[in-house]
Amino acid sequence: MALSFRDRVEIWSLRENKPVWCMEVKTSDNTGPSLAFPLVPGGYIASRSPFYRPLSPQLLAISLALGTQHAVLLSASGVVYTWGCGSHGQLGHGDLSPEEEPRALEALMGLQMSSVAAGGWHSVCISAGGDLYVWGWNESGQVGLPSRSLRGGQLKTQCAGSASTCKDQENSDEVFISIQAFPALVDVTELCEVSKVSCGSRHTAAVTSSGDLYTWGWGEYGQLGQGNMSSSDEPKQVRFFKDQGLRVLDVVCGPWNTFVSAVKEDPPHPEDLSSALTI
Amino acid sequence: MLIHFYWLDPTVLFFPQHLPMAGLWSAIFAALPVTEADFPLDFSEKIEPSLVEVLKQCRQQLYSGRCQWMQDAQIILDFSWEKLNTGTWRDVDKEWRCVYSYGCLFKVASLCREDASAVKVQEAIRTCDMGLLMGASIMDNVLQRIIRILQNKVWKSHYKEDPNEGVSPKKLKVDCDPVIKQALAVPRIRCPSLERFKNDYLDTQKPVILEGIIDHWPAFKNHPWSLEYLQTVAGCRTVPVEVGSRYTDENWSQTLLTINEFIDQYIVKNTTDLGYLAQHQLFDQIPELRDDILIPDYCCLGDGDEDDITINAWFGPGGTVSPLHHDPQLNFLAQVVGRKYIRLYSPEDTDKLYPHQSQLLNNTSQVEVESPDIEKFPEFVNAPYLECVLQPGDVLFIPVKHWHYVRSLELSFSVSFWWS
Questions:
Q1: CB-based contact (8 Å) between B183 and chain A?
Q2: SMART domains attached here (chain B) (predicted)?
Q3: How far apart are CA A211 and CA A209, in angstroms?
């Protein structure tokens, strides 16, 4: 387990389910953003020496997310690039072909993205305005579109064309999506923007600016945090946090689990009330 | 024929007609190694040690008389399933497929451990089939042995119920029979000698229909293949089915159904949706059907053994279409039930056939053969071709890389042999 703080990174190992202190790495100074380390199997930051690959000089990369066999990159100008295996639509270019080099997502051109994440076979990004786009394999509803395995009915692969929302659920002739090969706008909640997102192997978790956690996708190991082992093909709020008076700040997903950081939401201060009264 | 396979199956000979629930567990346990020590679970370091621990836990529970390993079996299945879906199927490590089969084995054992209702037995059969379809052979193909035991139990319960009503395919509007122009007809020859076939067709790579060479198949003589026969022998078996008009379509997908479900939903029912049990090595999965067919003698003219020959089943209603495409090997397409319209183009004329550019569909033409878009594909109408209506008992020889288009005219069952 790696914990990243402003001035240091702490590494803890889990022995017999208890955290045991291992070591600490001090980052150079307190200025600048804290380093972002990915979760890797084995519990270490990197079990092998880093693999270096230069990107095109125009590509000012600020964030990289890795799926099972694909990569999602965010550039400083807010453009999303993907490459790797495309067999499940996870590259978002509208087909199932692989890409050897980073290729910009045409469907999102003109929109500025602020963060990216990747699951086993799906990808997500958040726009500057707080909208969530998802694409890739939807076999357990991880893309947030109607999934046959959860509801029954005909399967469909959506290739080419432009980004779209899919909301209709009453129609029995409804179409189900097994592979979403180009980005789809997913309505997490109408109330506010999405601020953070992370993907597990086959599930997705998103935090809103109001401090709520939404999860969807594969849930058979309880990774959706809904108190059951059900999967979901639409974003559902994890009420646990609100019920406990917790404000969700961030989320990170392992392959079959979800880690959340949250703080106790302070009740309104008495001083606020009095100042309001004086006004 | 039920007595036939009951006779030949030694694992079933020793058990009484009515298998009580405890009897089912004993029968399955008897198909496994005698002790835990004889049950191999050796894997290379490619398999995560933590998963090997789970496998060992299952094995231990299995032999210790406890009943609670379903959750662990499911973990093995879920973990290995993700590996099976990583990258192309060809590249999936065989070891992961073995792990998946072990998961299926443990799950089946758990389902049959106690109180094996008909629903659980059907789920166990389905689980064995998943292991056979997606896994790799373990413990001398133990899943195949177990499925025999389970099928017997299913058969017994069916036997007590009302006999099957005659099942007949829906009365659909018969696809209007194409009239074959004599000048374009694929030549036909009756029982040619090996030498004649080699000289006139194999060496010159020319298509031909061989007549009379499969008349002796049990599929024609001993138990003619019919919907009833298939349902009796393999009705509860899970098979992959292609849904959608053709594999180049956006709406095309694959699903898993039992043969009973496939027949009910796509052959008997009056539905517009097309379902096709296509390009599936059914005869590896269901040995009873393998016994009904024989590899054509002419395959001995090729290289390699019988084991190198890929045998595929093609079973579906009228109207199924295989778009114009070519395969890397020689093909004997044997027609058993129903008729198919087939058109053949030579590899020399590939430039007029507009293959797809993508890697995935490189061997498939973009043109709809029976209603070509002449504006988009102007040269297509200039490509010479041969055509035929393949009848039951015919075998079509398709040379290497020869383009072929196939449409079934009615309920059809074909068997293809890919050889080199």
A1: no
A2: JmjC (SM00558)
A3: 5
Residue in B85, B252, B359 nearest the CB of A97: B359
Strand-pair partners of A258: A253
The pTM assigned to this predicted structure is 0.81
Q: What is the rounded distance in angstroms from the CA atom of residue A73 to the CA atom of residue B87? A: 20
- Choose, out of A17, A68, A147, A175, the residue to mutate when testing the contact with B (most B CBs < 10 Å): A68
The beta-carbon neighbor of A96 closest among B78, B86, B360 is: B360
Rounded Cα distance between B209 and B219, Å, is 19
Cβ-Cβ pairs closer than 8 A, A with B, add up to 36
Sequential DSSP letters for B240-266:
EEEESS-TTSTT-EEEEEEHHHHIIII
* pLDDT means over runs of 10, chain B (420 residues): 33 40 83 93 94 96 86 97 92 96 96 86 95 96 95 64 46 66 95 97 97 97 94 95 84 90 91 91 96 96 92 96 95 98 97 90 94 96 97 97 96 97
Q: What is the CA radius of gyration of chain B?
A: 24
Question: Cβ atoms within 10 A of the Cβ of A247, count?
Answer: 16
Q: Which residues of chain A have pLDDT under 70?
A: 1-2, 4, 6, 14, 23, 25-51, 152-173, 267-279
Residue A21, class by beta-carbon neighbours within 10 Å (0-12 exposed, 13-18 middle, 19+ buried)? exposed
Q: Do A87 and B88 touch (CB under 8 A)?
A: yes
User: B85–A156: do the CB atoms touch at under 8 Å?
Assistant: no
CB A218 within 8 A of CB A231: yes
